[in-house]
UniProtKB/TrEMBL annotation:
Residues 340-356 have a biased composition (Low complexity). Residues 340-362, 374-398 are annotated as: Disordered. Residues 256-349 form the Fibronectin type-III domain. This is Carbohydrate binding domain-containing protein. The lineage of its organism: Bacteria, Bacillati, Actinomycetota, Actinomycetes, Kitasatosporales. Transmembrane segments: none annotated. Its cofactor is Ca(2+).
Amino acid sequence: MRRIRTRLPGRPLAVSVAVGAVLGLVSVPSATPSPRTTPAAAADNTATVFYYTKTRNWDRYNLHYAPDGGSWTTVPGVTMEAACTDWVKKTVTLGAAEGLRATFNDGAGTWDNNAGRNYALGTGTITVKDGVIAHSDPCGGDPDPAPEDGNRATVYYSTRTLGWTTANVHYQPAGGAWTTVPGAGMQAACAGWWKKDVELGTATSMKAAFNNGNGLWDNNKGADYTLPAGVTTVSDNTVTEDAGDPCADEAPDTRAPTAPAGVAARADGVSVVLTWEPSTDDTGVTRYQVTRTGGTRGDVVTDVGSTVFSDTNLEERTTYTYTVRAVDAAGNVSAASAAATATTGTKPPAPAAGKPLGTDPRKDPIYFVLTARFNDGDGSNNRGGSQHEKSGNAAGDDPMFRGDFKGLINKLDYIKGLGFPAVWITPVVLNRSDYDYHGYHGWDFYRVDPRLESAGASYQDLINAAHAKGMKIYQDVVYNHSSRWGAKGLFTPTVHGLRDSQWSWYYDEKQPGFEYDGLTVDPRSGKSYYNGDLWSTAEPTGNTCVNWGKPTGAKSPEGYTLYNCQWPSPTSGMFPKALYHTCWIGNWEGEDSRSCWLHEDLADFNTENAQVQNHLIGAYNKYIDMGVDGFRVDTAVHIPRTTWNRRFLPAIQDRVTQRHGAEAARNFFVFGEVASFVNDKWNRGSVNHSAQFFTWKERKEYSADDEKAALEMYEYEQQQGTGNQPTSTNAFLEGNAYHAPDRGRFSGMNVIDMRMHMNFGDASNAFHNGKDSDDSYHDATYNVVYVDSHDYGPNKSSERYTGGTDAWAENMSLMWTFRGIPTLYYGSEIEFQKGRKIDCGPSCPLATTGRAYYGDHVAGEVTSSDFSKVDSATGAVATTLAQPLVKHVQRLNQIRRAIPALQMGQYSTEGISGDMAFKRRYTSGGTDSFALVTVSGGATFTGVPNGTYTDAVTGDVRTVSNGTLSVAAPGKGNLRVYVLNGTGRIGTAGPYLK
């Protein structure tokens, strides 16, 4: 999102580990575990299902289930038996099935069926607690067993900063064997603490790691914990020996939250959206429990983490009633809210939800499109908005909302033919502003903007169509701000609007029953950008805006009288401080950059507020459920790292894991925009405003209050300064050897490489500047690298890159072979709009900018059966595909796709002479890929392994017997990629790679 500063009025692990999840946790890979943790095979699979009762309070508990591939039990299922406090259980035999589908009920018509999806459970020991599935025995035997002969370790483990709903300890007494993964279930001791007594026998200590039973691990940054006999606490990687009971002085929480208020239900087809005001509690509300009655399927209870619940797949033309209860961390449940009702309509045809492709994101170069400007597949959803005439777009018949999902679906083969396996699209949520085609003025975060959708070409259709072609969809998301008109379901300001002769063009009459959706045209006014639901001439009840409706004494550019409270702004008093910040940014490298507005159209969320957090988490869960493959995070720098690390990033991981599994979660790609437009390693000396800072987890504990924690973290890290920040070798070879990266300190967010972007006016500058910063990222091989974008060109240029075709080719050659994930802004493959101003708002036609409509260049038919391979093309798209940079990027994608070292490899410049020259290696399982690369200039590589090297560009074969290989300069834009034991030339010679 563009910033506009002016404003208008190695040690052995307990288990094998892979990519870091959140807060220093690691996920167990799907590969076969080490023998010490492999359970013995059983003749028949069984599942012991534990179900949490405290927040249900039913009289009876039944398990209604079907083994995978088998039939369901007869309703209501089998009776579950008491297990321990707050838990019931049932063990069932599954035969050869490797899992079961399940629901739970009270035998009297009330069901927990996972919001209509049923629960998908595996074998072994499984827990279902408030909608979350995990794997452990929550009872864990007698919490205070009689002492045995030998030593005992009493372990307390804190999950206060992790958000886990259960905890297991996986351990090995000294000299003994490891428990079977996931280990022994720990028992809840008090809020945020879990306890387990372990009999050590003659051992005096044990190795241990902790997990949530759902693939997230804390193994002490890869070293495992060493815990002695006696009482020990483990909190945020800190072990305290001979500790006291951390729960001893904590009075039990017996106070229930307040009942949710303001419950409202709105039907949309066969779905109902339920919203309510957040409850209050002395220790904090952790979730809500929604009970639905009505229809023929019985009552249903669903656990919800936010104050918005979307109930889908309901019966047609049926009235449903909803009540909501709040649940706190101790399991206290509030009284039920007042009931809300809604009547469904008819069911529209809808595609099935997708599933992320779940592969390593470093394999996938990215093609970035502004959906509304890429290609128009359906003219009926085109909209010009209130600025259609003023911008000059009308004169060119070029409405701002022109491209759509149908147009993108129609041209996926074009993108695939270029060789891109991933597509980054601009935000999809319903926007609301005067010029909102780009998607960064979100209003209804729970709804896809109808101006992008068509019959048979919904957002889900796009995701599914891309996946069918082996292509990923990365969705641009905004957590920092909404539109100036607030966020539907959270807060929408009421604006003073005087329909006099001056302002009648802007302020619409209220139309009963008409609701803004950006697409539907109001029959009375003929407009789709209706705002009659926002304005009022009478001062509203509870108004906080000062001098409501009084003239300000100023005039608009047209000479119209301006009134107080006419335009939302942070200082207008219109926005509640609990939900929105109420100041303008004064220092862009100061603390206020996280707590003030960027621009008048970007109302800054108070992201440290739990209600705001729940609203956003609930919204983006919807898109995770649809199967998107990752999120590009807009304006990430304007939210504190503590909030990302505590709230948003764990929520993403948890939801992907819950819906799509641990493998998909490990590879769900989150990359943030941390905009720093300087050539320094650290942004003007401020670590809090530097891209690499956001790739790290916190290194100390801060206040439990998120707002206080943000300030504490800011001050602490500023005092530490740039010289005392964490460093990493994850991107670097050790000599010629690849080493397993340490994921233990990864925050969960990767970033756009702003320093390379800033220096891509010259490829050599980009290379050396990027290399200089790489030790300060958690893992620079995940950096997203581009030359220009929808915001800026290199060196903060406001124009699309215009360095020339040869320079473009050189930049591409570097991006596709150096560490990081190459990304191309739509049209750059033909130098589209080079030298044009990227964005001028509504003051000039879009056709004259870097955000011009691209569809004319891809008109015609194109088919691609594989990446970088075009089977047929006719019309304008055939001409486009014949351009020199198109041929260049196609072959670069071919070469990169064939050589793992260029995708995921670590790199080094040790022993290498030459400007842009480096070696890369990736080793995993049976793969060992080693490549020597030089871009444009010549190079000499010394100290490299002996053997046969083949250039992937020319097919030249060299035998190295003395550790040295010299390469002549291939020419600007060209490169050489000598691969040890390479298979030969990849692709055919083109205008640059030859």
